[in-house]
Amino acid sequence: MRRHHFADPITGIISSDYVDVPEGDLPLALQRRPGQILVPGVTWPETQRIAALVADDFGNQVAVLEDFVPPAPADDELRTWHWDAEQRGHVPTPTLLALQRKASAPLLAQLAELDARLARPLGELAEASATGQAAPAEAVERLQQINASKAQLRQQLAAIAASTSAAELASIVSTINP
Predict the structure, then answer these.
(1) Rounded-to-integer distance, Cα 87 and Cα 79, Å
(2) Of residues 96, 104, 107, the one with CA closest to residue 160
(3) pLDDT at residue 25, rounded to an integer
(4) 81 in helix, strand or coil?
(5) pLDDT for the residue 31
(6) Is 53 helix (H, G, I), strand (E, B) or coil?
(7) Any idea of the CA torsion for 95, 97, 98, 103, to the nearest 10 degrees?
C-alpha cells in the first residue's frame, strides 16, 4: 500500500486527507477530488507544500515537496509560540505572567489556609468583647502569628509580581522554597 495525500496544485497546500492505494494500482484518477491532485510520499502534510510540479519520464506531473513553516497560533498573555524543527510544529512557551501565576499559586493557597485558621481566634475575641470579658491572650497571640505569616506571604507575592524576567522570578522562587 502506498499513501497518497490530496493537494491543491495552485496553492501547494497538502491536505491531511489521504487514500491508501495498493502498489501498481493506477485508478488514482478516479479517486481524485475536483481541482486536486494526489501526492505520494508526504510524511508531514501540515509542514510540507508542493514547491513545483515536474513531468516524469512518462509525462505525468510529479510534485516536488518543500518544507513549510505554517503560521504560529496567536500569542496571548500566558504563552508565546516558537517553531521547533525537531517536532515540526509550534511549541508554546509560558510568558512571565504565566510563570508568575504558577509561582504565586502555592502562596495563595497558603494565604487561604491562614484565612481559614483566623476563624477560631477571631470568634474567641468577638465572644470576649460581646460578653465584656478581657481578650484571651492565647487567641490574641494566635491572631498575631497568623497575621505575621500572612504579611510574609504577601511580601513574597509582591516580589513575584514585581519580577521583570524569568531569571529574576526563578531567583525569587528559589529563596521562597529553598
Answers:
(1) 18
(2) 104
(3) 62
(4) strand
(5) 59
(6) strand
(7) 130
What is each CA distance from 152 to 97, 100, 148, 169, in whole angstroms? 21, 17, 6, 17
The pTM (predicted TM-score) of the whole model is 0.69
**Quick check: 39 and 50 in contact, CB under 8 A?**
yes
Q: Measure the N-to-C terminal CA separation of the chain; round to a whole number of Å.
A: 58
HSE-up of 131 (CA within 13 Å, CB side)? 10
pLDDT tens per residue, range 144-170: 999 999 999 999 999 999 999 999 999
What is d(CA 74, CA 63) in angstroms, rounded to the nearest whole number?
Answer: 31
Q: Find the length of the chain.
A: 178
Alpha helices in the chain (DSSP H): 28-31, 96-117, 119-130, 137-162, 166-176
Strand pairing partners for 37? Answer: 7
Question: Cell digits for 151?
Answer: 504579611
Compute the distance between CA of residue 84 and CA of residue 88 in angstroms, rounded to an integer: 6
For the segment 79-130, what is each residue's pLDDT rounded down to a tens digit? 999 999 888 889 999 999 999 999 999 999 999 999 999 999 999 999 999 9
At position 163, the amino acid (one-letter code) is S
Placement of cell 525537531 in the chain:
86
Handedness of CA 85, 86, 88, 91 (dihedral sign): negative
The C-alpha cell at 143 is: 491572631
